[in-house]
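Quick entry, no commentary yet.
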Amino acid sequence: MATKRKICFTGPMRTMVAEDILRDAGCELVLGKPQDDFRTFRYERKELVNLIGDCPIVYPSGRDIIGADILDSCPDLQAVVKSSIGIETVDVDAATDLGILCCNSPTPENYMGVAEATLGLMVALFKRLKFNEAFMRNGGWKELQNRGTLMLGKTVGIIGVGRIGQNVAKRLGAWGMKILGYDPYVTQETVISLGIKMVSLDELLKESDLVTLHVVLTRETRGMIGMRELKLMKPTAFIVNTSRGPAIKEVDIVQALNEKIIAGAALDVFDEEPMPMDNPLRQIDPYRLILTPHNIGANPGSSEAGQRMAAQSMLAILDGKVPDTVVNPLAIPHWKERFWA
């Protein structure tokens, strides 16, 4: 069955790699409000449904939620394709029930960039980089009480041992650090070569000098780190989150830092993005909390590579083929029956 070569970009970006590839392939593009110029804009439900219209594919920006009500209201929609790894803004379960494919774009430029950035944040926390730079800029010089911590022999706990988590472990291996891992979907045998010891979440939290999160956002991972978990950590321990903000209960991390339940944190992701100016995280001692605007792993190649992979996924779907990037393979039989029988 032939299908329209028409794709909806809900929030086109200044980087136009995907647009160029798809136009060169003869696709018609429906463009919504540019994401870079309207970061806080939110479509009304009717607006978004009308924008998608009869497009067989929607390519949503990071600000746009593709929920069950949107999916159910677009009878021609075959697929939702993202140029990022995370796909939590899409109701994947509802899409699966409807036979709509969901695809992400896990490029090496993306996950390796996040892994590299995670190590940078670890070093900054252990070595008290923010404090010592500010101290020197204000006229100070080296003081014994301002020293950092030797990382050699310390224990790092990795929550979520997928592509990013494994690349973090691979880079830590040469640093003489002990590595613990928690991931209910990863076996000890698959990561033994990386020097990761798989343990329970509670054991990881209790034993680690630094905990780093690399999870996708699901029902299981949303709010998985709250006050109970933070209190299991050592008072000298740090936590890093470069995955998704809601994996940590924001109100609890604020309390844990203010009450010195843990030593410090580095956060690149947040419950609401962009972060509102009145978010209490902004008021925490900046020497104990590093905040970056969900870009710490970004690099000149990550956006282009993600868009390129997304465009290839979209072209495959328009030809009735199933790309390797499908995250809900249970939808494939219904998708074939609905659109390609």
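second:
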Amino acid sequence: MTVNSSEYKSKRQWSEIISLINSARRFVFSTHADPDGDGLGSELALARWLKKQGKTVDILNPTPMNGIYRFMDPSGEITDFKVEKHQPVMDAADVFVVFDIGDFKRLNSVGEAMLRTDKPRVSIDHHPGDKHQFTHIMDDASACASGILVYDLIREMGGSDFTKEIAEPIYAAIVNDTGNFRFNNTNSEAHAIAMDLLRSGVEPYPIYMNIYEQTSRGRVELLKYTLENLKFSTNGELAWSVLTQENLDTADASVDDLTGLSDFMRSIKGVEIACSVVALNGDPVKVSLRSKGKYTVNDVAGSFGGGGHNFAAGAQIEGPLDEALALIVNACLAKVGASTDVW
């Protein structure tokens, strides 16, 4: 695939969403709880482009962003949603647009506020899943990131020369969800669009550095506990590790420092499925699953009410840690065709 600025033609059907956007004046954007670089980059890029077209856009997210992504929003365009403060903003909106949301429940109170109105709700996403709460849907699992879809939409709406402030968050979205063009979802479309974004002035290293080279000492300590607690099964194809509130407190780490631990386990030679299990006080047990590609894991996560991509997914399991751990490890063992007696 090549990107020609003068002859661009999308392979996707955007006409209904474009008509809706053109007819509206005020928008509310959002993404999932614990937003990542893809959700944040997607909403920032489209918001900045629409504002240049004279539209009003408020970005209201259900939870604060991880500190590593703050570089993407230096002027504070993104606001943490508070229902008592922002319900009037929701009521005044003409259209809601949600990015990167595989599961509507992950919108938390933002989703509840959306459902209290009869305004159109648009999903722009690359995750499979049930989207019945939305009136307009653009879901394409062939896109490596929701940011790819935002680029595609802007081009279809007549955008050609991307300013750096619009190009950077799209590039960050792609870098985030492809592991800096390393994961098996990386494709020719991602590289072609990245090349066009570089022509718009994007500097790759600062974006890479901010996302992947900001490891805190707390995260290093959590990585130590991850290795200490690491277990293997089925000749090393399955690896899992458990972290608890005690580990977090001892490491003087934050919840933000938990990001990427399952990716590290997946990098171990011979591991096909990596499972990070986190039990924090008062929260459901959180499970992060990663696969090198031999086995899918979104179906494993889906059996516990979670979801994600074929090879990167997550879920939350209610109940005591021991019970949750047994459930998820047994599910992973079944996925690789092993007996649940082996661990």
